[in-house]
Write a structure and sequence with these properties.
Length: about 190
């Protein structure tokens, strides 16, 4: 799935160009792998779009009802975090922490889902995979009685119109370092 994020502005800034640089590709792969491991460990929702048993796209979403069990499992995540620390720089981790602080502060104070990442492999882009992923996610959000909506962030300005077509509104236009960040919210 790391190829799905090769042109993502945040990933390019954090890790370098993974299409041209093997070290950057290795860092992106390690980070995406960590994110999926984290999501499985913390029981976040991970959903993939497959054709002929081949994964073409996926999303990871944080559910609005995380409890103490999730916090306790976060401690176990440290074992998976340590290898990642050997792949990425302290500066990268600092920027990631800044990004998380800024984007989470922009989310509304309602119980909501939070889209951590969504990606479609390059060869499947433009074929409805991303739309199918987003429709499935919105159906999940709309059927969750505790959730008031879905927050997400994008660094790609052209994604704003795409998300607006699904009912999202731009809640904050900000910047983390030199990266523009557009925080959006879909309210049920």
């Amino acid at each position: 799935m790391s190829s799905a994020f090769a042109r993502d502005p945040l990933f390019l800034h954090l890790f370098g160009d993974s299409e041209l640089d093997n070290k950057a590709r290795s860092r992106v792969t390690a980070f995406v792998s960590f994110m999926f491991d984290k999501s499985f460990l913390l029981h976040e929702e991970v959903w993939g779009y497959f054709i002929h048993e081949r994964l073409l796209g996926a999303y990871v979403v944080e559910k609005p009802h995380a409890g103490i069990r999730q916090t306790m499992k976060g401690v176990l995540l440290l074992g998976r975090l340590i290898p990642l620390l050997f792949q990425v720089s302290g500066q990268t981790l600092h920027l990631l922490n800044s990004y998380i602080r800024v984007t989470r502060a922009a989310a509304p104070p309602l119980l909501h889902h939070y889209l951590i990442m969504i990606g479609v492999k390059p060869e499947a882009q433009g074929k409805g995979v991303g739309t199918a992923l987003l429709k499935h996610l919105l159906e999940t959000v709309n059927t969750d009685k505790q959730s008031q909506g879905l927050a997400l962030d994008t660094e790609n300005k052209r994604n704003i119109a795409l998300y607006q077509n699904f009912g999202f509104t731009l809640s904050k236009d900000t910047q983390v370092g030199q990266i523009p960040v557009y925080c959006m919210f879909y309210q049920k």
